[in-house]
Amino acid sequence: MAIVGRGILDGMGVTFKTFLETYPWGRVLLRVVGIPSANGLVTIEYPDVKQQHHERFR
Which tens digit of pLDDT belongs to each residue from 9-19? Predict the structure, then answer.
């Protein structure tokens, strides 16, 4: 039997985990619970680093 809204709940879980990874106390909390975490903020320094696009991208 499938759970209605499972995809939404999974997506919200990923968003919440990413939110916690941006704070030192959040990474500690994830470590205590046993969930592996990334290294912190995931941003692009826009004026210095630009995303690469295909040559014909509009």
Answer: 999 998 998 88
Retrieve residue 39's tokens: 């290294």
Alpha carbon of 40 to those of 14, 28, 49, 54: distances in Å? 14, 12, 18, 29
Cα separation, 5 vs 51, in Å, equals 33
Residues, the chain, total? 58
Tokens 């939404």 locate to: 8
The residue whose two tokens read 């997506």 is: 11
CA distance 27 to 15: 14
Q: What is the four-CA torsion angle of 21, 27, 30, 31, rounded to 10 degrees?
A: 140
**pLDDT at residue 28 is higher than 80:** yes
